[in-house]
Amino acid sequence: MDDFIIPAKTIKELEEMTIRFLKIAEKHNLCFKRSKYNFNMEEIPILGVVVGKGQIQMEQERAFKELKEKITSQPVLALSRKKGKFRVKTDASGHAIGGVLSQVSQTSFSLYLHN
Predict the structure, then answer these.
(1) pLDDT winner (highest mean) among 20-24, 27-31, 55-59, 73-77
(2) Is residue 102 helix, strand or coil?
(3) Phi-psi category of 34—alpha, beta or left, where left has phi over 0 and alpha has psi -120 to 50?
(4) 6: part of which helix (H) or strand (E)?
(5) Are residues 25 and 8 in the same domain?
(6) CB proximity list for 11: less than 8 A, separation 6 or greater
(7) b/e map of 57-77 (b: 16 or more CB within 10 Å)?
(8) Do 84 and 107 belong together in one domain?
(9) What is the side-by-side order of every strand in the sheet holding 109-113?
(10) Which domain does 94 fall in, by range?
């Protein structure tokens, strides 16, 4: 198991929630690598954003807003058309593989969901 967070407002609440979480994990035979976890952290990185004391660091917040803008504006995903040329791009590494299906639009290749 990787990347879990136990939020709490007080140290006492954190201890109670952590004990409860570990009991549930033990019941389900879940294991954790000691070098991969920390307790009582005031700030933690989550997906590249540092969160602490209920706040997101301002620089990370700006980057998040920029990323959000880019993934919600043109080009956007759309259903594919029955007619038209398709292009498939693939990439692989030692631990992952991925692909993108795109279709020619009126001006360039656009990303489409294949239905």
Answers:
(1) 20-24
(2) strand
(3) alpha
(4) none
(5) yes
(6) 40
(7) eeebeeeeeeeeeeeeeeeee
(8) yes
(9) 78-79, 109-113, 97-104, 86-92
(10) 78-113
Encode 6-36: b = buried (16+ Cβ within 10 Å), e = exposed: eeeeeeeebeeeeeeeeeeeeeeeeeeeeee
List, in order, residues 6 or more apart from 94 with CB less than 8 Å away: none
Helices (H) and strands (E) in the chain, counts: 2, 7
Token pair, residue 77, equals 């995903």
Q: Are 54 and 46 in contact (CB under 8 A)?
A: no
Distance from C-alpha of 106 to C-alpha of 13, rounded to nearest angstrom? 58
pLDDT tens per residue, range 51-83: 777 666 666 677 778 878 877 777 666 677 788
pTM given for the model: 0.43
